[in-house]
Specification:
alpha/beta; D-Maltodextrin-Binding Protein, domain 2; Double Stranded RNA Binding Domain; five-stranded mixed beta sheet; 13 strands; 31% helix
Length: 319
């Protein structure tokens, strides 16, 4: 049986995700071997400037997806939050793995929480979303650019370059680094990126040979929740990136989605919340409808004015 070629970035977190998918495929009876193919992306190469100052999007996925379209690999594994809401033509998301903790974490050494940081404390983050919500929570903080993989960022904190940094809880847990978390940030006050904590597995549309090994990896509740979040983002984007945090949860066949748009100075924010009963046969369509409904509520409240201000800088959530 021909081995499946899995395209992935070579960072520690990306390799953890890729190896997890490979492990789940190999565990299936009669499954083929899985070979990892390391692919360098623009996001890996552009370390000279903050990515939010660079036009475009899909910095951490584009080269991998094009290798998939071109037949150089058979499947691709991504952090779902890195995937654009419109995929490369000819590709589809076949599976979304069960979501890890979607929250952001404050990593701040001896400081127990965000309010404990001294006035003017230097906080590192590469995300405009995190910058906006940090400004909303603590407008006195000094925010500075932070690039690199998770271990590199932690090392910069240890070296004293920052008094605190903000990282995704999911990445820390997957790398066995959760002990560095000073505080888990409340997702209602500090909402995560769309689909944060979820892993997507993509294949070429119509590639039944590959997809048969991926469908068993799909986690229904995660797929439904992230479908609502991505539908929300798709409707709000309007060709630009959005200073947005959102989180959907599915409990007892009822889907709840909360989202907040925040200006970069933290002075203006708008929130919306919606719920939707979901059925097994119509869950995906119902999730998308909820995402679009909550997005429209934000637009009706005036979110387009906040979004319009962000058309020059593009938000990039670095893994």
């Amino acid at each position: 049986m021909v081995a499946l070629r899995l395209g992935t970035r070579a960072s520690a977190l990306a390799l953890w995700q890729a190896n997890r998918v490979a492990q789940l495929i190999r565990a299936q009876p009669g499954a083929p071997a899985v070979e990892l193919v390391h692919i360098r992306t623009e996001g890996d190469a552009r370390t000279d400037v903050p990515l939010w100052q660079v036009g475009g999007r899909a910095f951490f996925t584009r080269e991998i997806d094009r290798a998939l379209v071109g037949g150089h690999v058979d499947l691709a594994v991504h952090s779902l939050k890195d995937l654009a809401t419109s995929l490369e033509p000819g590709l589809e998301i076949v599976a979304v793995l069960e979501r890890e903790d979607p929250r952001d974490a404050l990593v701040a050494g001896s400081f127990a929480n965000l309010s404990a940081l001294p006035p003017g404390a230097r906080v590192g983050t590469s995300s405009l979303r995190r910058r906006a919500f940090l400004q909303r929570a603590r407008g006195d903080l000094e925010l500075d650019e932070l690039r690199g993989n998770v271990p590199t960022r932690l090392e910069k904190l240890t070296q004293g370059k920052y008094q605190a940094i903000i990282l995704a809880v999911a990445g820390l847990k997957r790398l066995g680094l959760e002990q560095h978390v000073s505080a888990h940030l409340d997702p209602w006050l500090f909402p995560p990126a769309v689909s944060q904590g979820a892993i997507a597995v993509c294949a070429r549309a119509g590639d039944a040979t590959t997809s048969q090994w991926l469908r068993a990896l799909d986690h229904g509740p995660t797929q439904v929740a992230t479908a609502a979040e991505r539908a929300l983002l798709r409707k709000l984007e309007g060709g630009c990136q959005v200073p947005l945090g959102a989180l959907a949860t599915l409990e007892h066949e009822r889907l709840t989605l909360t989202a907040t748009v925040c200006s970069l100075d933290g002075r203006r924010s708008l929130s919306a919340r919606g719920t939707q009963a979901v059925t097994r046969s119509g869950a995906s369509a119902q999730a998308i409808a909820l995402g679009e409904q909550v997005a429209q509520e934000l637009l009706d409240k005036g979110a387009s004015h906040i979004i319009a201000e962000q058309r020059a800088p593009a938000q990039v959530e670095e893994p």
